[in-house]
Amino acid sequence: MSTEEKPAAAPRSLAEALRGRGDAELAALLRSRPDLVTPVPTDLTQLAARAGTRASVVRALDRLDRFTMQTAQALAVAADPAPYDELLGLLAGDEGDRAVSAALPGAVRTLREQALVWGDDDRLRLVRTARELLSPSPQHPSPTGLGPTVREATAGMSPGRIQEIVTTVGLPSTHDSVSAVAALTGLFTDRERMAALLAEVPFESLDVLERLMWGPPYGQVTADPATRLRRLLDRGLLLPTAPGTVVLPREVALHLRGGRAHRTTEPVPPPVEAAATHRPQVVDATAAGQVYTALATVEELLKDWDEGGPAVLRSGGLSVRDLKRTAVALDVTEPVAAFWVELAYVVGLLASDGGRGTSHALKAVGDDERYAATPAYDTWRERPAAERWTTLAAAWLTATRTPGLVGGRDAKDHTLSALGPGLDRSAAPEVRRRVLALLAGLPEGAAPDAGSVTERLRWERPPRSAGGAAGSGSTGPGGVGGGVEGDDLRSRLARWTLTEAEMLGVTGRGALSAHGRALLGMPAPKARAERTARAPESAGPGDRLPVHHRPAVPHPASPTSPSPALTVLTPAEQAAASAAAARLLAPQLPEPLDHVLLQADLTAVAPGPLQRPLADMLGVLADVESKGGATVYRFTPGSVRRALDAGRAAADLHSFLAAHSRTPVPQPLTYLIDDVARRHGHLRVGAASAYVRCDDDAVLNEILADKRAAELGLRRLAPTVLAAQTDPAGLLEGLRRMGFAPAAESAEGDVLITRADARRTPPRAAPEPVPEGPPVPDDTLLTAAIRAVRAGDLASTAPRKAKAGEADGAGAGSGELPRTGSAETLATLQAAVLTGETLWIGYVNAEGAASQRVIAPVRVEGGFVTAYDHTADEVRTYPLHRITGVAELADDES
């Protein structure tokens, strides 16, 4: 038997529209708006209600590109519902726009997918909350610049005044205000009649309309308006909304604009322009040089904090003074120093020691909480240079902490400090990936124009016209930043990303490097792949990415397509991408050297990076004097004493220098080591409160006679022992400032050895990024959520047989639980076991949560019913006392 299918009825609500979607479409909605699935809604009606809440709608609107947002704004000023052609006219104008016509279907599709618009093309409806947010009002002007309609503007006007306006414009008078307003609206929306009406208005009056045409549509008038204004008021071209205030009706403004809702409609994203183009080899080499500098800077920072870094502020973070000291030590600006400090922190290489840092035995009791390197730093230092860089870069990509905000002020007018609270911005990871993806879309070796990058991002996520976080930003790395934080945060994040990527070596000369592209999980450009295929013998082991790598950020297929959703790599995918990046980077980095060049002026020149044992030992034995392509170390009495304090003997230092120098060891350096070693440990400092002892009482007499010793509070206990009022560490430092070379000793009298890496924090985990809203659900959760929503919807909408006194199907889909007595519930369940009927039940679980279920009872015994639960798609057992009632389902209509 053949039957004709009835056309699907138009949905009457958003819930009905969602009910008509397939599982894949629902999954796409929940993936794009993850807040809708937290927690999982009980049915599609609840899902639709949650999709219409203000917080969820605002979050969804914030993720629209500019043209899609303009489409939503146009729908907000259109009729409700609006046909597709009316929407097209509002965006393209009376003369039409081919680009708008081509892009509008995609924008409407996006709004439908986001559950912001529902209905067929002939009845497009913007969800109520979105319409309330986007519709123009005196308190919240619309970005379209349009005002209220004639009907809205005349709502408080007297019927007599409305009739006067109708008569003035040549329309027949009516018996009521409703029909008069409708006639006036019809006149203002008729292009020919409206043109004729405006032709009667003098030029000076038209000038007033043109000034209000693109908004704001409100103006001020006196109690006795000028003639040019009176002509407009008499014809209803301006309507009073409050004493002294007039408004340009929406219909009049649209006629003057040629039907356009926006002054400028932007259906096509602005292109990212290239500011310069370099050879890819130059880009990669420059980026590799930046990588080397980045690794050296992080190591120098943490080495400087080996003996205990700056104290932690009471409110958390570094003080301004400590940040300045760090910048001087690293020879960089303060914003750049803040970037390196924050980067080491997010990687987990430094943290607060909690006041329990491990240091030498002379650490003062009750020492303040300080920043120091973590045990993870020692593990990180031992890894190859390329792997150390991928650890830094991968953490930077996903970090929500934003160093560019350091120095600014938060909403409470507190200064934002490095390593302190308030620096997390959940949008930072997405912006970083998107900026790098835009760079990857340029020709190989092309550096972007920063302004075009920010313009593109502002098109993809236009800032709100009002609101935003309070507070002010600061100058970011490289001097970029400033201004008030809020709507333009994404633009500032983009500028900071370009600067930080260059410092980190992800880019070289502004262009994305090969290892930077690999870090994102993106394949090599076609030209590079072809060169690699033609010359495989010259390709490094990392020049090709595995073919299974998918782009981290897909690109629009056409200029008019909306910005795609960013794909975040899973931990396994990111690990593979980091390994590929390390393979590409390794051949670009210089090989570590095992030698230095000793000079007669007590310096050593390292012509390149040094191997780890040599670098560590030389870092203890000498001080860095200058950095660059070659590092210059200087030997001083203090640096040699530092090596002796670390447990090295003079003979060890002589043999070390002879083994690692390509030049003979200069005689002045030999004399310096022997002289310091001869005096080292002649004085001994230990813990009583603190004391200093020496076998030569003449040396102690010299110390007591020195005026600089007054601050130490010394007094003689014995001919060879002096007691001090300061702690052992302070006593050591004071004696060294006086020119002596004391050694610390333990309670047993043994010399204490202090190593360069002695101070470490307890094991610390790297800070977790702050997510931007609920996390995106994975496929497993989406499948389970859709199954639960479908099942709950089946239970809530299943028709049931009406009881006596009820209308047919009463209660079906109403959300109310069925209610029956205990005896009736038991009898109905037992009958359903015999007949195999399906029942609709209300059920309250142990937590008190009520739900509706559709079950097919199998067995009733012992106070429980065992049934196949259609809502859960499995057999379950329910206690009878938790069933609120049962109802039979209506027979299916043929």
Describe the structure.
The protein is α+β, with helices and mostly antiparallel strands and 894 residues long. It is built from 34 helices and 25 strands. The strands form eight sheets. The chain has a five-stranded mixed beta sheet, covered by helices on one side. The chain has a five-stranded antiparallel beta sheet with strand order 24-23-22-21-25. The longest helix has 25 residues, at 280-304. The radius of gyration is 38 Å and the shape is elongated. It starts with 13 loop residues before the first helix and ends in a 6-residue tail after the last strand. This is Helicase-associated domain-containing protein. InterPro entries: WYL_dom, XPB/Ssl2_N.
List keywords for this structure.
disordered N terminus; alpha+beta; XPB/Ssl2_N; 894 residues; elongated; five-stranded mixed sheet; single chain; Helicase-associated domain-containing protein
